[in-house]
Amino acid sequence: MVGKYHDIAAAVMIPGGALVAAIAGRALMMGGLTTRFVQGAILLMGVALHLGGVGILVEQMPIGGWWMVLVYGYAAVILAFAGWLTDVRLVTAFALIPFAQMLDTGTVYFRAVYVFMSPEPTLSILQLSMLLVAMVWIGSTVAERTARHTRILATMAFIVANLCALVGSLWGDVVGQTLWGPGQSWHSDLSYDAYAAQQDAFMATALEISPAVYSILWALALIVIVAWAANSNRRALFNAGVTFAAIHAYTQMFESFADEPLAYVIGGFATIPLAWGMWRLNHWFTTRSA
User: Which residue in 68, 177, 201, 209 could disulfide with 181, CB within 3.0 to 4.6 Å?
Assistant: First the structure.
């Protein structure tokens, strides 16, 4: 249909996928029709058809800005609900992709390079932190079946937030530059002189966070979160926090001493006590949860 009837594909796929997903979802909640596995598979196929139609509609219509924020938010809610309904945490985890893309955080490919990109790292960290806090709180008040999904969302939010912090620690951030500012680069529909004037006016009042400040704040946040996760026995958040602490330390060391051969020697030898420390921490966690 997409290949031969592209013009009407969205009009068919959006309501058609929603109808299939609604029928399968009702069967999952109420019982009947067939086995839960088959009903869940049909539900996910309906969701894929529906969201695929939404994607085609967005492609056909010249929309952007806050409309795209709503589209990505809608896709995130649909995926999270589908993951909870089918009790498949992998589907729930996928909800973080459109959720992060609400502020254009994601991946990009150019010149044989595939990289993580966060044009608004500070605002993305705040967005993901709110989700993390909400999921931790909800997870402590609901049944285990639902708590499993809140934990995976909290963990994914924490991972992506740390990737945003990595971007900020390397390049800093001018908060809001791509949202309510003139953007990070000159666009052809605006003369360069006009763009430069807008950029100067925006930078005069914008909040700018340097890479050094970002690095310090990220390190302090990791210390607090790792300590809290260890004390509350949240293994996933603890493991992710320690991993990003190592990434942060090695990144800053090699950014500062890239031309010093001794830095690589020290970095290599430092992995030995770190590995021993992780082994002892794992034993401590196992003893506490026994």
Answer: 177
Nearest Cα to 124, choosing from 72, 195, 77?
A: 72
Structure tokens at 211: 């890479």
Phi, psi for residue 115 in degrees, rounded to 5: -130, 160
Tokens of residue 213, six digits: 């400040």
**Among all chains, which residue has been given the structure tokens 């970002």?**
214
Instruction: Count Cβ neighbours within 10 Å for each residue of 216-248 and write b for 16 or more, e otherwise.
Output: ebbbebbeebbeebbeeebeebbbbbbebbeeb
CA distance 173 to 153: 26
Letter for the amino acid at 1? M
In angstroms, rounded to a whole number, what is the distance separating the alpha carbons of residues 102 and 96?
10
| pLDDT, average across residues 236-247 | 90
Residue 209 φ/ψ, nearest 5 degrees: -110, 120
Q: How do residues 47-85 score in pLDDT, each as one tens digit?
A: 999 999 999 998 888 777 778 899 999 999 999 999 999
Residue 110 phi/psi, 5-degree rounding, is: -160, 140
Q: At what angle are helices 261-289 and 235-256 packed, to 10 degrees?
A: 170
Q: By three-state DSSP, how is residue 33 classified?
A: coil
Other CB atoms within 10 A of residue 206 CB: 15
Q: Using CA atoms, how far apart are residues 163 and 116, in angstroms rounded to an integer?
A: 8
